[in-house]
Design goal:
The protein is mainly alpha-helical. It has 19 helices and no strands. The radius of gyration is 21 Å and the shape is globular.
Length: 455
């Protein structure tokens, strides 16, 4: 279950991710609560999320080139430091009562830009540390940091808002103090990253023009049906599936108590399920039917969201959200690990940047769900979201059957070197051919062994 923890640098990355994840989850709650308190609009919540996600559409490809050309450790340190500084400034604005809706937009753009530049480096350093066979285990354990934060982060944020504001939950003082706490967590993440021995050196021998680098990655993604299918699956069903999370303040206000503590409990229920999913799949280790399990998880996510849309009490909503979290945790982690295993190491940063670029389109799935919430009801919006998750997952199952056939993901289906992929790569064959699995002979095995030896 804990194979990836044998590597010292993975343990440090894991702790750093834990601190950053707690900060992010607390920020989601504090930002969402204050935004809805100021505007009273579900669409306004969507606008804040769009501001945060939009930079991924433009900046992520540059981040991918950076990840493939430069040492990943200093890139991560610089970006996390900038994120902490920006959050600290925003905390001051909120604390002193100067905040308005546009501040959420401005700082969302800043934080989103920093994230877009850094995430390709952060997401691709893990397979270089642990190697392909331990990657699924590492991704599940990394996901557990995020999911553990989902359990405690929302509850802590909700309680702190009420405590710091002495019960006056409309006060910006309480939210401002929570943002100062978030800044501290981001700074802690920087410290743990500094302690890494592994620098994530580039695995390329030459650096063509930036635009050629980006085009090469796009062409590789387009020609490989498994990679293209995973990117589409990571965008469309998951966009509709995550919409209820961002509209949770509306659900809490219209159907429940409208208390910050209860809002935190709802997200905590989802976090408990997500953490459970991460630990279950981490225990399972190197799954032999990753593709099939990916689609089963999406159908289960759809069913759980249907149940959530029909809930009438806090208790039933928390139970339903437990299963929502369980399903999306499995689907998200499998999608990410399968994609990384399908890509040569020297191109991994750029292909992952395409994933993050497409990920920036996720707010497009939130907008129609938010409109339905305002035009009809939040319950109707949740039900439509669930049906779209299941429907689009079924559609991609038929469009990309190669994805469902993927087994372990690192022993078959040889991938040509990145330099030849653009001109020679062809869609994986289907029919009677063996179920595709991936190999990544380009992985830096020397670096992996060195990392293990340093533990």
């Amino acid at each position: 279950m804990l194979n990836a923890f044998e590597y010292r640098d993975f343990r440090l990355i894991w702790i750093s991710s834990m601190a950053a994840s707690f900060g992010m989850q607390m920020q989601i709650v504090a930002r969402g609560w204050l935004t809805y308190d100021i505007t009273g609009s579900a669409l306004a919540l969507s606008g804040v999320m769009i501001a945060f996600m939009a930079p991924s559409m433009v900046i992520s490809p540059i981040g991918g080139v950076i990840a493939d050309r430069f040492d990943k450790k200093p890139v991560m340190i610089a970006s996390q430091t900038l994120n902490a500084i920006a959050t600290g400034i925003f905390a001051c604005i909120i604390f002193f009562g100067w905040v308005n809706y546009w501040h959420f937009i401005y700082f969302g753009l800043i934080n989103g830009t920093v994230l877009a530049l850094s995430m390709p480096a952060r997401s691709t350093i893990v397979p270089e540390i642990v190697g392909p066979k331990n990657l699924t285990n590492a991704m599940m354990l990394t996901s557990s940091t995020y999911n553990a934060a989902r359990i405690l982060g929302p509850t802590i944020a909700g309680l702190l808002i009420g405590w710091f504001a002495a019960g006056d939950t409309t006060s910006t003082t309480g939210v401002g103090l929570v943002f100062f706490c978030i800044t501290g967590l981001y700074l802690g993440s920087v410290v743990w990253t500094i302690l890494l021995d592994f620098r994530g050196e580039p695995q390329r021998q030459h650096n063509p023009p930036v635009w050629d680098d980006i085009v090469e990655a796009i062409q590789f993604t387009w020609h490989d049906k498994v990679v293209k299918g995973l990117i589409w699956i990571g965008l469309v069903p998951m966009s509709f599936g995550f919409a209820p999370t961002f509209l949770m303040p509306v659900y809490n206000a219209e159907l429940l108590s409208n208390r910050p503590e209860d809002y935190g409990f709802l997200l905590t229920g989802m976090g408990v399920g997500a953490l459970s999913g991460s630990l279950i799949f981490a225990q399972a280790g190197d799954l032999r039917r990753k593709g099939r399990t990916l689609f089963i998880s999406s159908y289960f996510w759809c069913a759980a969201l249907v149940g959530f849309s029909l809930c009438t009490t806090m208790f039933s909503a928390v139970i339903a959200l437990f299963f929502v979290g369980l399903a999306y945790s499995a689907m998200g982690s499998l999608n990410m690990s399968m994609l990384q295993l399908a890509v040569p190491a020297e191109m991994r940063g750029r292909v992952m940047s395409i994933w993050w670029t497409v990920h920036g389109l996720m707010p497009l799935g939130i907008i129609p769900i938010a409109w339905i919430a305002e035009a009809f009801s939040i319950r109707t919006a949740m039900l439509v979201s669930a049906l779209l998750v299941g429907g689009t997952s079924l559609l991609f199952r038929f469009m990309y059957p190669e994805v469902a056939k993927v087994r372990s993901g690192h022993t078959d289906h040889p991938i040509p070197p990145a330099e030849t992929t653009v001109t020679t790569a062809a869609p994986p064959s289907s029919g009677t051919s063996p179920a595709p699995e991936f190999t990544n002979g380009s992985d830096n095995t020397a670096s992996v062994q060195a990392s293990r030896n340093s533990s």
